[in-house]
Amino acid sequence: MNDAANTVDPTAIIGLVAAIAVLVVLVLRTKVHALLALIVAASIAGLSAGMAPADAIASITSGFGSTLATIGLVVGFGVMMGRLLEVSGAAEKLAISFLRWLGSKKEEWALAGAGYIISIPIFVDSAFVILQPLVKSLSRTANRSFLTLGIALAGGMVLTHHAVPPTPGPLGAAGIFGVGIGDMILYGVLLTIPALFTVTIYARVMGPKIEAMIERDTGEALATEDAFAEFSKLAEDREVELPSLFMSMLPIVAPIILIFLNTGVAALATVNPDAIPQFLVDSSAFIGNPVIAVGIGVLLALYGVARKLSRHDALAEMEKGIDTAGIILLVTGAGGALGAVLRDSGVGQYIGEWVSGLPLPVIMIPFLIATMVRLVQGSGTVAIITSASLSAPILAQIPDVNMVLAAQASALGAMVFSYFNDSLFWVVNRMLGVKTVKHQILTWSLPTTVAWATSLVTILIADVLTR
Known about the structure:
Strand content: under 5%
Structural class: mainly alpha
């Protein structure tokens, strides 16, 4: 245990509760923007935990910077690519093709399944940014709820992001618990399939209701920039003006393939260092990095589907995309700052240690530690690693514990109620155009909680079946 965790006292917990209360009040009841509210809450939490003012500021700034370093360029490149796919008609082409392949009224299931698969090798924030243009286009062309499709896509992604390696959280949990990666992948897929169904059903039922609520409360409708009411009737005529399916898919598929390639080459090189020449390992690591891969996707969109645009028009459209990314990046960074303060102050680990001492069914220990840490500091990956680190030594002393299931309990417990201090909360809501806190919670906090609750039931059943 680190020293910070051991020195946390009740004042820090009271301060944390106060910080969260201030955050909620500022966002819900005042004109203070969420960006500033998050920084205020981070300051209160850090100072009340006994951090020196200079240390609190350092934690805020480093948390902000490290968060943006992880996803900043990817978000920027992603919105540029998305804008080019929109204005070129490539997203419409993909939407028409999806409808023809999958049939009417199944779009949310298709997007949930696609997100579920794609988020296995790709960080969830990046994957959502890459595929979000499909949500807008499918909503328009299929006359389906925009939020139904968006929630289904993000819901499918978040499941495998938490449960299936090679994403960092489940991969770290497997290493700490000493279980095989293959076993972790198999359990992750099996345990999250029920949640895939419940999240998609939530999206289908609640998406239209949330949209109606937003329009009633704000007088604004989502995704109504253009009218495509007659689009499906004239699809064949419209397709004459659109790019080919291959060129429309290439900017999206190419980054995914490159990231897959990097994952596969790195895994093979780890198993057998002599199997692949080092220059190939280095090359795949470079082009398969999400920043480089998505940047290549922008170039493919620019010189592929958007090649008919003039230089001036292409730059103008990409800058429009960047305009939408600015607030996403700032608020996302502020959420990272709050998480960093709570992590550096030791409060998150302190709560984890407290939960680990409670009389609980064995498999519930890692699940609840991950749940509590996630609620406190926001990062699912940090919650998974903290839960695994605290619970693995405890469970190792208990006979007949399925350690793969315990590792998955750490991973799935961290899905609970994504909210202000989670970067994905802001990415999903902002890119779907949901601006009011009440609507944001319905759009993303509750679906992640549905996934969490379904996973809890699944884990408890699996624990009984594997004894």
